[in-house]
Design brief:
Oligomer: single chain
Number of helices: 9
CATH superfamily: P-loop containing nucleotide triphosphate hydrolases
Distance between the termini: 39 Å
Strand content: 15-25%
Mean pLDDT: 91
CATH topology: Rossmann fold
Low-confidence stretches: none
Strand order of the largest sheet: 6-7-8-3-9-10
Radius of gyration: 19 Å
Structural class: alpha/beta
Length: about 260
C-alpha cells in the first residue's frame, strides 16, 4: 500500500517572450512510496529533483498530474482543505537555516508548531519541548540562543525536532546533508534512520550523492532532464542498471570511491 503516489506529474516553467514556450523541469513522473520507506531520487543538478519535491509539498504548483494521498489529489485541494495535510507532509530543506528566523531563539522556533498548527498541550509546550529535544541531540542550553549563534549541524537537528513535533507521516529530504561538514553528515543520516525506525515515517530523499542514496534508500529513482529514467530496489539498480545514463552515473561513482 502506497503512502504517496505521483501520477504523470509535470512542471513547465514559462520561457521566451510573453511566456511563450516553456522549460519542462519535470516531465510525466510516476512513482509510489510505501509506509516506512525511503525512496532515493538521484540525478545531476538541474534535473528536476527539487522541483518535484516542492510540488509534492504544494510549495510549487504543478502544471499537470496528480499527487495522491489517501486517495485524494493534493493538487486539487483548496488551502482550507489542504491544511490538515500540512502536518502530515513536511519538507527538510537543503539550507535548513532558511527555515528558522535568525532573530528568534531556538525555543521560540520550536514553539511555532504549537502556535501555527494549534497542537494540543500549548499550556505546557515549553516542558514538552525540553523533553522532546533530547532524542535529537540538542542540548538544553541551546534553547536560549538565536539561530544565528548555532552551528549548521545543530540547526539541522533543531529543524528536524520542530518537524517531528507535528508527527508527520512523510518528509521530503532535499539534499539534507549537502551543506554540512563531512563529520556531521553521517550523524544526521543516522538520526534520520532512528526517527524512521521509531515513528515509521516515509522519506523522499533527494540527492546527487550516490553514496548517500545507496546507503540510505530502500528504492531509488534516477532522473535526467525532468524524466524518471528508471526505478527499482536500490541493490537491483546499482547491480544491473537498465539505462546507459544510470550505468554512467554508477561507473563514475565507483571510480571516485576507488
Amino acid at each position: 500500500m502506497a503512502v504517496l503516489e505521483l501520477r504523470h506529474l509535470s512542471k513547465v516553467f514559462p520561457s521566451g517572450r510573453l511566456g511563450r514556450g516553456g522549460y519542462r523541469a519535470v516531465d510525466d513522473v510516476c512513482l509510489t512510496i510505501g509506509p516506512g520507506e525511503t525512496y532515493g531520487l538521484v540525478g545531476e543538478s538541474g534535473c528536476g529533483k527539487s522541483t518535484l519535491g516542492r510540488m509534492v509539498t504544494r510549495l510549487l504548483p504543478a502544471t499537470s498530474g496528480q499527487v495522491l494521498w489517501d486517495g485524494r489529489d493534493l493538487l486539487r485541494l483548496s488551502r482550507k482543505e489542504l491544511r490538515p495535510y500540512r502536518r502530515r507532509i513536511q519538507m527538510l530543506f537543503q539550507h535548513p537555516d532558511t527555515s528558522l528566523n535568525p532573530r528568534m531563539t531556538v525555543l521560540e522556533s520550536l514553539r511555532e508548531p504549537f502556535l501555527l498548527h494549534d497542537l494540543p498541550g500549548r499550556d505546557h509546550m515549553d516542558d514538552r519541548i525540553r523533553a522532546h529535544i533530547s532524542a535529537y541531540g540538542i542540548q538544553p542550553e541551546l534553547l536560549e540562543r538565536r539561530a544565528s549563534q548555532v552551528s549548521g549541524g545543530q540547526i539541522q537537528r533543531i529543524v528536524l525536532a520542530r518537524i517531528m513535533l507535528l508527527e508527520p507521516e512523510f518528509i521530503v529530504l532535499d539534499e539534507p546533508t549537502s551543506m554540512l561538514d563531512v563529520s556531521v553528515q553521517a550523524q544526521i543520516m543516522e538520526l534520520l534512520r532512528q526517527i524512521q525506525a521509531r515513528t515509521g515515517v516515509s522519506y523522499l530523499l533527494i540527492s546527487h550523492d550516490l553514496d548517500l542514496i545507496e546507503r540510505s534508500s530502500h528504492r531509488i529513482g534516477v532522473m535526467r532532464q525532468g524524466k524518471l529514467l528508471e526505478q527499482g530496489r536500490t541493490e537491483a539498480v546499482f547491480q544491473a542498471p537498465s539505462y546507459p545514463y544510470t550505468r554512467q552515473l554508477i561507473h563514475s561513482f565507483a571510480y571516485m570511491r576507488d
